[in-house]
Amino acid sequence: MTLSSFLFIVLAPEGVWRARFELEPGRCYGPDEVLLECGSEAGWSPHTLTVEATALPSEEEFREMAARAATRTADDSPDELRRLLNLLIPF
After folding, report:
1. Burial track 41-55 (b if 16+ CB lie within 10 A, e otherwise)
2. pLDDT, tens digit, 9 for 90 and up, residues 34-73
3. Total-model pTM
């Protein structure tokens, strides 16, 4: 069962990096599952996390951040405190 579409974006003066996920509840995502999208437009999804940066991270750093953000967003824990922490600390 798919939870929703999730878009992770890093905006920097030199460009935009995006990663799209079709989230599954409780799934743990790894950096190797991140499909990097480059471009000038940020894009949109029902669940979007946008990070503004002074410079784009390395591709490896971006993949790690995107995977952590997707994993936290897909967390279907019944623990309300854990879900709140995932919203406050997304990656």
Report:
1. eeeeeeeebebeeee
2. 988 877 665 666 778 888 999 999 999 999 999 999 998 8
3. 0.80
Determine how β-strand 15-23 pairs with β-strand 47-52. Answer: unpaired
- DSSP H helices, 1-91, are 59-74, 80-88
pLDDT in tens, 14-41: 989 999 898 888 899 999 999 888 776 6
Question: Shortest CA distance to 44 belongs to which of 73, 18, 75?
Answer: 18
DSSP per-residue string spanning 11-30: EETTEEEEEEEEE-TTPPP-
What's the CA gap between 64 and 87, in Å, rounded? Answer: 17
User: How many residues make up the chain in this entry?
Assistant: 91
